[in-house]
Amino acid sequence: MTRYLIRRLFMTIVALWAIVTITFFLMHAIPGGPFSREKELPAIVIKNLERRYHLDWPMWKQYGYYLWNVCKWDFGPSFKYPSRTVNEIIADGFPVSATLGAVAIGMSLLIGIPIGIVSAFRQYKWQDNITRFVATLGVALPNYVIAAGLIYFVGVKLHWLPVARWGTWDRAIMPAIALAGFPAAFITRLVRSSMLEVLQQDYIRTAKAKGLPGETVLYRHALRNALIPVVTYLGPLIAGIFTGVFVIERMFAIPGLGDAFVNSISNRDYTMILGVTVFYSALLLFMNFLVDVAYVFIDPRIKFLEGED
Amino acid sequence: MFWKRISIVLLLAMVATIGAAGCRTTAQGGEMVIRYNLGTEPQTLDSALATGQPELTLLNELFEGLVRLDELYQPQPGVAKSWDISDDGTVYTFHLRKAKWSNGDSLTAKDFKYGWLRAISPETSADYAYMLWYIKGAQAYTEGTGTADAVGIEVVNNTTIKITLDQATAYFLSICAFPTMLPVHQATVEASGIKYGSEVENIVTNGPFILTTWEHENILELVPYDDYWNRKVVKLDKLEVYCIEEESTELAMFEAGELDVLDNPPIEEMARLKEEGLVIGGNLGTYYYLYNCQKAPFDNPLVRKALNLAINRQQIVDNVSQGGQIPALAFVPPGIKNPVNGQDFRLEGGNYFADNDIATAQQLLAEAGYPNGQGLPKIEILTNDREAHIKIAQAIMEMWKQGLGIDNVTVRTEEWGVYLDSRDAGNFQVARAGWIADYIDPMTFIDMWVTGGGNNNSFWGDPDYDALVVTGRTNTDQATRFQAMHDAEDIFMDVMPIAPIYFYTDPYMYKPYVKGVIKMPAGPAIDFIKAYIENP
Fold first, then answer.
1. CB within 8 Å of chain A, chain B residues 68-87
2. ipTM of this model?
3. What is the longest distance spanned by two Cα atoms in chain B?
4. Which chain B residues are Cβ-neighbours of A178 within 8 angstroms?
5. Sequence spans of domains, chain A
6. How is chain B split among helix, strand and coil, in percent rounded to 5?
7. pTM, whole model, 2 decimals?
8. Residues 273-302 of A with CB under 8 A from B
9. pLDDT at A7 over 90
10. Which pLDDT tens digit goes with each residue over A46-59?
11. Under a CB-based contact definition with an 8 Å cutoff, are residues B254 and B266 in contact?
12. What is the CATH number assigned to the segment(s) A92-265?
């Protein structure tokens, strides 16, 4: 198992390095720099700025300097916000995005799993039909459409919730719902089909034949096995939340990292783009790694390739 | 059984949500608070480095320079209670009142000198260093060819500061209101280093408001500064400034009662909002199309004029941009008064051509050698990728086709940074552009087009024009310089290196209980110093 872990870690580092390198060179290849302005800057000012941010060094030197700083987990100053460093901006924005993401994931699990189970138990009855219909909607509607609808009806028309911004817990509800729409729907369908499959299994029949009450059958035997695909889905789910958050944060004026990241690209804020890319990539790779490891513990059928015994 | 359990949990969650939401109120509980959306996170509150409109607005509330701009955008005494100008117009002596910084320190002339030198120093590399280049020796200092001591700023004593200009500059007092010329608290800068201006702890101010909270990308809270010399005019208890970027979200918040001022209405909603009380305010700016006068056929003024005259600006303003903009038939927008006779510069100068003058346009095009648009090479309009600009470009494409028979026009859309690059490099034929005044004087528009000027992206030049610009900038007699600027605009509009499309407007709306807000057509744009709430 340790061999497996080490190998995974190594691959993760290689992947990260590749991401940093590709992003670095892609970024510098785009025309327009961080100092392009509508009112053109005097040449001397541009020269001074380039000197300060080492943009006048040869490309390989800039790359090496940057790589060295990344190893020290120092992403440098932001070009757009001259008094703040990228590390600070990430430290400010990430907890917000993470909270929102966590609430959204929690919501989608809390809604998706129970309803998926109900749907499986009442297959083809009206509960199932309604669920499948709503789930299709959830998968088809983009999250910003859900968001716009919520803002308009729940916020402006009904005044049930504050329209935007962040801080109090009631401001997290609408954005989380918008983000959770797709995952909840997906998880519902996933759990439903997985549960249906599990319920066909012999061991379930055995359990029922033994006379175990329905609930015990469900909680002790069926549920755990039915949820395995959900664990698999957690990886892509987290990735999806990361990217879905960009639009939602902007629409709800939430001061998270997603919005800052999108802006950094049009600002050509090189250090910010690189820093957030590295950060998100590292996070994602780590999450996927965790899911893989968790998988082994959840499903005894899965073994490490080396055939541990 | 658990089906019941699930529904109970969901029901409880819903009730709790609605219950908590019901406790939300829009009233402020006795305190006079105005909630305003800045539109973005402020880049910095370092007055030397700030470049954008939102930063200007905040800096104007938190700081005060020698002068302060009033409702008519005229410079009024700020920290300087009076000033003397030498006869030749090159030496300004400001007499300062006794003032304090927000941490209790005295504010003296030294703080102004420190702030100005810092703004133009080569280390700071400030975008707007050039605003101070009117001062003797300033440009040399920024470019590294001169020293700080050679710059014409002299601290005579704690309450007197003397500035020597390179040449007389009639609008220098307006420049003194610019944020780059704000005083700066030296000890704070030295203690915070690079972090100056980025957090509440790293900034010390002297204006009508002080900053009590700054949560990045979220909110800034300003309260009145009790030792501000004009404290009695400030009526608000608090100004809450948000950083919402999405226009539709700002509108939703305004309509839900969570914002008191609507400053950035989305275009799609203009028509509806106009009926609900949207005000179309003045905004000193011109939206125009740039010709690359080095590339045929745009090196021929007849072609440029023909293309200009074939544009139906009224139609664009009514159907495409819909912001109540004013069709531009000249370059300098209305809103600048000639101090000699009180007349508006634009009204005095008049219009240079008629909108949608197809007949003359066709005639000019034929004279240029392209009757009915035949023989013209492909034309490409460059624009950045905002919806509004693309629509306008497409409308103009149609107009050129219908009116002049030119059917090989295309539109090239580029992302903002790429577009700026293309424009600066001359990699375009026709490009969309906009220019907003830096200060209220026609010169901010006129001096763009000097031969080889940094902002002259049309690659056009004319020595007679350049000479008139010099007169406009340096002559101390207002009548002479305004005449020179009119003459310059005459030359410019005779050969039309650009096609003016419309003059910007500033649509905004207040809640009915918001009063006393000052709106300006340029600079800080909005000022809450005298704002208050009445009968919410």
1. none
2. 0.82
3. 94
4. none
5. 92-265
6. 35, 20, 40
7. 0.82
8. none
9. no
10. 787 787 778 888 88
11. no
12. 1.10.3720.10
